[in-house]
Amino acid sequence: MSEKEKNLQTIIDCGVVAIVRVSSAQQAVDVCMAIAKGGVKPIEVTMTVPGAIDAIKEFKSAVKEQVLVGAGTVLDPETARACILAGAEFIVSPTLNLEVIKVCRRYSKIVIPGTFTPTEILAAWEAGADIVKVFPASVGGPGYLKDILGPLPQVKLVPTGGVNLETTPEFIKAGAVAVAAGTSLVDKKAVSEKNWDFITETAQKFCEAVRQARGK
Known about the structure:
three-stranded parallel β-sheet; single chain; six-stranded parallel β-sheet; alpha/beta; TIM Barrel; 49% helix; 9 strands
């Protein structure tokens, strides 16, 4: 099994991808540490964080092999390459950019492009996406995911947007290989108060929600 295949299995086994969208690189590192402590291994630092690439480097250096560090809100191939060179093991986009997929495949990194319609989902999968992000998943909910997987059972889907502790089990039961959680996992008040224990506990709850939904 290649490193990329192992990393992909880590995302699927965990079932939760944490989205870290905060106001500074230092905050991002602190939040990432708290999430990792709670058992969520795949952690996506978004490019909207000032100094995001530095945060990826610092966090990657601190955690070594314990977690999977990725980059989110990647809109173009140049940014994708910069993130990969900084140590990102997976790249997430809010939209479908075929050039981003090409760069990730060239470097043997996981790519998770953003889509919504069945046409976009299949186009992303056929272009080489490892997992396809459905965004905003809040629009159609778990039922939409289930409907998509009817004719497209081969596609690995991860819903983003509208994912919380209540909807996570529903998305998993609908067929999602994982869910991506942002503000419902990284609570803004907890971040501002540096209440890292609260974020750790929330991460643990998300992991437990996935385990229960899978019947484990």
